[in-house]
Specification:
InterPro entries: PQQ_b-propeller_rpt, PQQ_rpt_dom, Quinoprotein_ADH-like_sf, WD40/YVTN_repeat-like_dom_sf. It contains one helix and 33 strands. With 403 residues, the protein is an all-beta fold. A five-stranded antiparallel sheet has the order 1-14-13-12-11, with no helix packed on it.
Length: 403
Amino acid sequence: MGRRRHTNRRTWLGLCAGTAGATILAGCSSDEETTDDTDDTGTSDDGLLEFGSDSDGDWPMFGADLQNTGYQPDGDGPVDDVTVRWRLEGGDRFVSSPAIVDGIVYAGCRDGYLYAVDAETGEIEWATQLNQRVSSPPTVIDGVVYVSSHGVPDKIHALEADSGEQLWAEELGNSAHSPAPYGDVIYTYHSGWLIETDRTSGTSSVLFEGYSQTPTAPAIKDGVLFGGGRRSIVAHDLEQMERKWEFENENTEHMSNGTPAVVDGTLYTGSTDSKLYALDVESGEEKWTFETDDSISAGPSVADDTIYLPSRDGHVYAIDANSREQKWSVDYEFQLQQKPAVTESMIYFIDGKTLHGLDRSDGGVHWSFTPDKDETIGGTLSVADRVAYLPSRDHHLYALEEA
């Protein structure tokens, strides 16, 4: 895979102009308006992101955190039977997980709007039209919402979280995915390129290229970004600006249909060869694998030394990260293709048209919810403050609480 060091603005625009009409990029002008952000980078001493929320149990980005664990340890979602607290009707499908920060739900819709909704009442605080489909999960940090939109070309946007005012928008290319913030930069995959975008100005640079397929969101831990191409997982050192290692699947199967999770020195990712791979984050060497009966197209979630893995064989598996043994599994009718959400005592996952709430300890089903219309659920759910937020293809975002 090729690598580019910090590309300046002129070079970036030249790259875009040179590839107009190609599949990589289709135009790269930018709104250069800047924000009033402080100099705080939003990172702790060890490089981990601090979201600075005033409430427990937020879900500020896809996978809950930069490591894509899918785990919210500071609270629970609904445990017993659920009822609809409210539902937001959009002009098209909701197909990505919302972000929840300080009592506000931020959700993108294919109608082109990014919505900010009061988590308690369902009242719309603001709705900003981005003029392109919004089908990637938003990320919220330091009072700013970052989100990708999909059109010709795709864009990444920065909006004021309080007002919805657009601060800047940058044209990048096709196949934009969820933004991952680290320090003063946002990292995204676009059109086979790994892009860094300055959080304040929106100025973008190509870091690495040559990906034939990219994950929904990279995982970031201790200054290293983990992502992948079609048949490999790659670790990039963000401080040294170099590739640290690459793990290639000897079965030549896809490694990046899902999104990797990084916990306690191990990276977990699924593959279309039906295996869960556990890799050493320092060396990229394979530690062990766990095999299912069909391909794995969703990223695993990890909590307290247990890996929760959905498979297209219709099972959700709980795997002990230490013994590598299966703790339990539950069989469902549909192929499971969405990353689970995990809280203090529960795991939530989507089975085609139904959301299930299971006990983490034994897989016992506490409740199930199916939207009224006969539509598959649009994307991965999010959980905050004992409420589950469910995007649906029936043009609604559901907020589910205990009955």
